[in-house]
Specification:
This protein is α+β, with helices and mostly antiparallel strands. It has one domain (3-82, 98-243). 15% of the residues lie in helices and 33% in strands. It has helices spanning 3-14, 26-29, 41-44, 107-113, 231-239; strands at residues 34-35, 45-51, 60-62, 65-67, 99-104, 119-120, 129-138, 144-152, 160-166, 173-175, 192-196, 199-205, 210-216, 219-225, 242-243. A hairpin with a 2-residue loop joins strand 13 and strand 14 (219-225).
């Protein structure tokens, strides 16, 4: 088995989707929103410990994640979450894995469709609006595989900020260091640990910005900020997340 290929495929799945904004009237639309933390940005992100240097074939467990070195294979002790297939046919072997996307015209309707907490950013540039909201779910059982909301400018393709909530994920969730496109021979980029009271999170760069992931109430959350590759701007959006 090609471990590097599997790892790249896994990272692609982990960072699947891009998206970004809620207007200044957001709080009025959701008066009962609860902030991820009531602290200021500086207080909330109180412990940025810097890059994690992971020795070869050594794993570190952190906040529901397992942080791995570049050439470490997919660990045998990881409990794999269910995969989903969106292109299954009636002749497919396992129809239980057949999935479908359901689109919603607003975030409130998506929220009413799911049974777990969801977060949205309350600080985004004024020109950014809701692009779309959707859930990916299993056709037979109706179980949610992932819920996603994308924000961005209507006339700009690919410059998004998105938030994803995934009940089905690997436990502990493997994280490898990355190399950005065009820099394969360059330095490895290791995940950073973030202490988001009361959650522990990891941050990795993407080709156009930053990816934040944390686990809460047995849900894997991913915030992908790609409309702005500035690290401080991404952290500000992270700290603005409010539960709906």
């Amino acid at each position: 088995m090609n471990n590097k290929g599997n790892r790249r495929q896994f990272l692609k799945g982990a960072i699947d989707g891009l998206g970004g904004m809620i207007t200044s009237h957001f709080v009025g639309l959701f008066p009962e929103t609860q902030s991820l933390s009531t602290k200021s940005v500086g207080e909330q992100i109180s412990d940025i410990r810097g890059p994690i240097i992971v020795e070869e074939n050594v794993a570190e467990f952190y906040g529901g994640f397992v942080l791995l070195s570049e050439h470490t294979a997919f660990p045998s002790y990881v409990q794999r979450g269910r995969g989903i297939e969106l292109c299954k046919t009636d002749s497919s072997e396992d129809l239980a894995l057949a999935g479908e996307d359901i689109q919603f015209e607003n975030i409130e309707k998506l929220r009413n469709h799911i049974s777990f907490p969801f977060f949205v950013p309350t600080v985004l540039p004024p020109e950014m609006g809701l692009i779309h909201a959707q859930v990916t779910q299993f056709v037979q059982s109706g179980d949610i595989w992932k819920a996603s909301v994308y924000f961005g400018e209507k006339d700009k393709h690919g410059q998004f900020t998105s938030i994803h909530a995934q009940p089905e994920f690997h436990r502990p969730f493997p994280v490898w260091p990355v190399r950005l496109p065009g820099s394969y021979d360059g330095n490895l980029l290791y995940p950073e640990k973030l202490n988001l009271s009361p959650k522990e999170a990891v941050m990795l760069p993407s080709a156009s910005g930053h990816v934040f992931q944390w686990i809460g109430q047995d849900i894997l959350y991913s915030l992908i900020v790609e409309h702005d590759n500035n690290r401080d701007a991404a952290l500000e959006i992270l700290s603005s997340l409010a539960q709906i």
